[in-house]
Amino acid sequence: MNGVSSGVLVSLGAYFIVMIGIGIYAYFKQSNDSEGYMLGGRNLGPAVTALSAGASDMSGWLLLGLPGYMYADGVVSIWIALGLTTGAFLNYIIVAPRLRVYTEIADNAITLPDYFANRFEDKSHMLRVISAVVIILFFTVYTAASLVGGGKLFESSLNLSYSTGLWVTAGVVVAYTLFGGFLAVSMTDFVQGVIMLFAMVIVPVVAFTDLGGISATTAAVRNIDPNLLNITSGMTILGIISLLAWGLGYFGQPHIIVRFMAIRSVKDVPTARNIGMSWMIVSLLGSLATGFAGRAYVQKTAMTLDDPETIFLVFTQFLFTPLVSGFLLAAILAAIMSTISSQLLVVSSSLTKDVYKLFFDREASESRQVMVGRISVVLVAVVSILLASDPESSVLSLVSHAWAGFGAAFAPLVVFSLTWRRMNRNGAVAGMVVGALTVILWVYGGFEYNGMPLNDWLYAIVPGFALSTIAIFAVSIMTGAPKPSVSAKFEEMESIIKE
Length: 499
Known about the structure:
It catalyses: L-proline(in) + Na(+)(in) = L-proline(out) + Na(+)(out). The protein is mainly alpha-helical. The protein has one domain: Sodium/glucose cotransporter. Helices cover about 75% and strands about 0% of the residues. Helix 6 runs antiparallel to helix 7 and helix 7 packs parallel to helix 18.
């Protein structure tokens, strides 16, 4: 083992020990019931809420996918960042306070399917079952996307096999999620968010310094291809809309909005918003800057870069000492693992509450539900590893499909359930089904327009979100008004928000 690898392993080893240690601490601190394991007892502070939401949101695509997009296509990638920033801000304004209040009013809903079923008093369980299926389907793909990042990290930086990277990444995440539940996931997310922020500042700063500054780097990129500096290069109006539309997905991402359900008080939401948005803006700018500097650095050093999504790894290997390099690699793992842990917990919670308890054991004790949740964490992790077994998978591509699926199926449903009292159960079911099926057919149906796959022509979340919205309004208006008890809970939520 050479010196560089040894130093890297020291840093990574320390990181793994800290993550597992937090999981053990959370195991002894949390209450042994479903609300404690799946929602942390609704007692997260604003800083933990904000960084936990941010870290679980960004995943490996922040350090791999987005820099790779900037490297390959230039500043047109800024459109994604603009869309995401806008969507995240509106999520804090529209969804966060209302969802925190409403989930408690709606019979203390713990999962998103729980909330949908209780919000509309759906005794048929249709809403709960369909939403659980959507979560299990799209999150399995999403988790696989995150594991791809872990496999690439181990393969590119540690000279280990892609398969080893998958299993090691999943193993550590499963360890602390299995025992510590939501509290461990949120606490590790906070630490991981701090590590990611540091990495997204130090890497581009050192890279620009090595290249002679921002002006010199920009000139070098211009010499490579002037179109890389054109924010509309090769873009159509629909292309720009597609990139901006990533922001629509925020309203429907269960692993993000579950943090709003867990914050200790609605009064803490503004503080969480300020912390979260500051973290996000700095991180996105750092990610884009890394890809931009990377294009000039590869040209300057005359190296060959086969996969643009590994440009962050290149900088960690060539610009930093072994120990710092290991810390920066830990930042990638932090981004990957924070998302995986959140996704695993959301899926396991849904499998427990919305599948096991509903269909197999309605009288399940709190301790049995926690046990089933832990078993589900392991099962979902294994399935995701199998799906991620192809090392040629693109992190950004896989994430985009899952993001669109949740954005179309849940985003309109979440927003209108929190803001429109006339919405009813039938409209909720129609919107969710139409949104999910639209994305599935748009991405995997094999349809083309002018010889171009539909998802390349227009991002699936756009038609999915639009058709889901239309379905919610049309079906809600054409069918009966909500029950008086449903309307009463809506009015109670509104009165609390206005206080």
